[in-house]
Predict the 3D structure of the following.
Amino acid sequence: MERNIDQINVIPLVDVMLVLLVIVLTTATFISTGQIPVNLAKAKEVSDHKDVPIVISLTADGNLFLNDAPVPSGGLPSVLGTKARESAVVVRADKVTLLEKFVALVDEIRGLGFQQVSLEVVRL
């Protein structure tokens, strides 16, 4: 009893493709956003930097992170001491952060010799 196969069973192919799609979408969300939860402010004009900046995150509760690594209180000068002063610094501040804390942070960064300090925002 010999039977000709005239159809292709695509159900296993669809299953594999759906699993791959779920894996890609799950990992893409972790890659595209930082690991520090910061609710960014929104702006109409956003600059696009092509170089890799130094990223300093300021959370809503006042914790500092340098490139996703925690910075102890008062330890910003020692952490930024090894970085080149020509590097661009991007501050990711939570939108509910007090203006006084943000201004003090930017002032401290500029006082360490960094002149290219910018704020990361989300486009409207």
